[in-house]
UniProtKB/TrEMBL annotation:
InterPro entries: MmgE/PrpD_sf, MmgE/PrpD_sf_1, MmgE/PrpD_sf_2, MmgE_PrpD, MmgE_PrpD_C, MmgE_PrpD_N. Belongs to the PrpD family. Residues 281-438 form the MmgE/PrpD C-terminal domain. Pfam families: MmgE_PrpD_C, MmgE_PrpD_N. This is 2-methylcitrate dehydratase PrpD. One of its GO terms (molecular function) is lyase activity.
Length: 478
């Protein structure tokens, strides 16, 4: 069944077809550097999946869907059970984003890989894909997400949409369509259908629903591509251009427009142009620049927390809005609290997942630092409507009790593609997130070598074994 022609603007002659042809026909010759970048993305995201496997959001999704979950080939990280691909993508996507430790595609302001990796790993297991095919599909998903970001950001994000669940389903559908080898006509249906799953307000930041956005987007990508494969129809070019189109409904008057989408596809691959920001800290990316600034000042000046009278962070309006909790009451809220994030950095050299646990929130030393932190919007720190890398920065001023005032500005935080995390440091992150077992170490090494894997059999065996072992260790003894 063909793509349903649009009522205005023709059927398959505009940006949708351009996107679909890119998905279906671009040669899989990304090069060794991008293949390695894709493998690193799987290492990082599987690490985050394992770290978030026991989070309340992950447990909640798994419990909610348990009555409807069918056996299948894809392992889910909460228990190691093999289930149907769409549900595995939902659970694993939620786990990947649960601790907010997963990567960011900065122009999209989206958690890209927490969507793409669970979707592609589940679907690839079902379809018998090779590691090279998974890497290829992931790089394609990055391309499509970056194209929508070029067309709609930052106007789209500024309106309060969580791009992980707005751009995420469309880009995940692109990756899944690529993995399924759909032709351009079917890929266009998958992309169009995926827009019907797009949603998600940033008001969910600090709640369990926020990480579930990544799981929903991962699941939606598989479902949209599968609907296209079965012959379903979807709107044609009108879904991207004109009244009631995706940009019309979700964008804004100041968005760059569809010309920027096409131009982005004609440029270098998104992974080469922007890369994946691999997080050094398990909290909202908006906090990372101020955190790095305080860390640099501590290292250079050697002050102790009790010597700090006040900390003032000058940030963009976007960052100010994202870090909305001054007095966090839950671990999720703490990840979106600059007060708590800076309190950790003031006292510790390393920020860990445990620093956002209930015990840390009750720590009197950390809580005593919270009132010292304030944020101020500095309009010059970000250019509205510009999705370019380097758009954001943070200025931090620390006032000491002896009257001294110290300042630091950070543009590219630790782990950003302009300040990349070395492979050895990424391996250490994986080891910190995963159980300390031989299976976990073997899984890490196989993921680093993903493009060379003839299939996913050993990878999924190890993932299931690591998850099952962790679940058994967590279970109460009888």
């Amino acid at each position: 069944m063909a793509v349903r022609p649009a009522r205005s603007g023709g059927g398959m002659s505009g940006p949708l077809l351009r996107l679909a042809r890119h998905v279906a026909d671009r040669p899989a010759d990304w090069g060794a550097d991008l293949d390695h970048a894709a493998a690193r993305t799987f290492v990082d995201t599987v690490a985050c999946m394992l770290a978030g496997r026991d989070d309340p959001a992950t447990r909640g999704v798994r419990a909610a869907f348990a009555p409807w979950t069918a056996p299948g080939p894809a392992p889910e990280v909460a228990s190691g059970t093999r289930i149907a691909a769409p549900t595995a993508a939902l659970v694993n996507g939620t786990a990947a984003h649960a601790l907010d430790f997963d990567d960011v595609l900065e122009p999209a302001a989206a958690h890209a890989s927490a969507v793409f990796v669970p979707a592609l790993l589940a679907l690839g297991t079902e379809r018998g894909a090779s590691g090279a095919q998974l890497a290829d599909a992931l790089l394609m998903a990055f391309d499509v997400m970056a194209a929508f970001a070029a067309a709609m950001n930052m106007a789209h994000y500024d309106r309060g949409w969580h791009t992980t669940l707005t751009f995420g389903p469309i880009a995940a559908a692109a990756g899944c369509a690529r993995l399924m080898r759909l032709d351009a006509a079917r890929a266009a249906v998958a992309l169009s259908a995926a827009t019907s799953f797009s949603s998600g307000s940033k008001r969910q930041f600090g709640s369990d629903m926020k990480p579930i956005h990544a799981g929903l987007a991962a699941q939606a990508g598989i479902v949209a591509a599968r609907l296209a494969e079965t012959g379903m129809s979807a709107a044609g070019e009108a879904i991207l251009d004109g009244r009631w189109s995706f940009p019309d409904l979700f964008g804004g008057a100041d968005m760059p427009g569809l010309g920027a989408l096409v131009a982005r596809l004609e440029g270098p691959p998104a992974m080469a142009a922007f890369g994946a920001w691999v997080k050094a800290y398990p909290c909202c990316a908006s906090a990372h620049r101020p955190m790095d600034a305080l860390k640099l000042l501590r290292q250079s000046e050697g002050f102790v927390p009790d010597a700090v009278a006040a900390v003032v962070a000058e940030v963009s309006a976007i960052v100010h809005g994202n870090l909305m909790y001054r007095d966090p009451a839950t671990p999720m809220e703490a990840r979106f609290s600059l007060n708590h994030c800076l309190a950790i950095v003031a006292r510790k050299d390393r920020v860990e997942a445990a620093d956002f646990a209930p015990a840390a929130l009750a720590d009197p030393d950390l809580r005593a630092f919270w009132p010292k932190v304030s944020m101020r919007i500095a309009p010059d720190l970000a250019t509205p409507g510009a999705p370019a890398v380097g758009r954001e920065r943070a200025r931090l001023t620390v006032v000491l009790t002896d009257g001294r005032s110290l300042s630091e500005t950070v543009v590219f935080p630790t782990g950003h593609p302009r300040m990349p995390m070395a492979d050895a440091d990424l391996a250490a992150k994986f080891d910190a997130c995963a159980p300390a077992t031989p299976d976990a170490a073997a899984l890490r090494d196989l993921l680093f070598a993903l493009p060379a894997a003839p299939d996913l059999t050993r990878i999924t065996q190890l993932l299931a074994a690591v998850a099952a072992g962790a679940a058994q260790e967590k279970a109460p003894s009888k």
